Amino acid sequence: MGNQLKTKRIYEDYSKDDGFRLLVDRLWPRGVSKEEARLDKWIKDIAPSTELRKWFDHDPDKFDEFSKRYKGELTNRDKTVNYLLEKAEQKKITLLYAARDKDYNHANVLKEFLEKKL
Fold first, then answer.
1. How many CB atoms within 10 Å of residue 50?
2. Superkingdom of the source (predicted)?
């Protein structure tokens, strides 16, 4: 079931292949209307805490430590994590995020965290 989860910048074009479109950012992405986003759901509380996000500040050198801390936060969000795992067992999910960096962002950490549990 490895292809059930994927990540994508919210600024990329919508595709039918996205499946269930889920915004996983705490803040609404700049310059994107609700219509353009074409979301199925927005789950703010799955995003890293504000403190962690500000500490990380999209610094690739901090990414390993950020990943560790974020996974620690995710272990305390069972209800939301279980919801996502149930969804992923039913259909393809695209985790949408606004960060510019396609490699060093929380959506990739979340995807890896969920895949280990599937």
1. 10
2. Bacteria
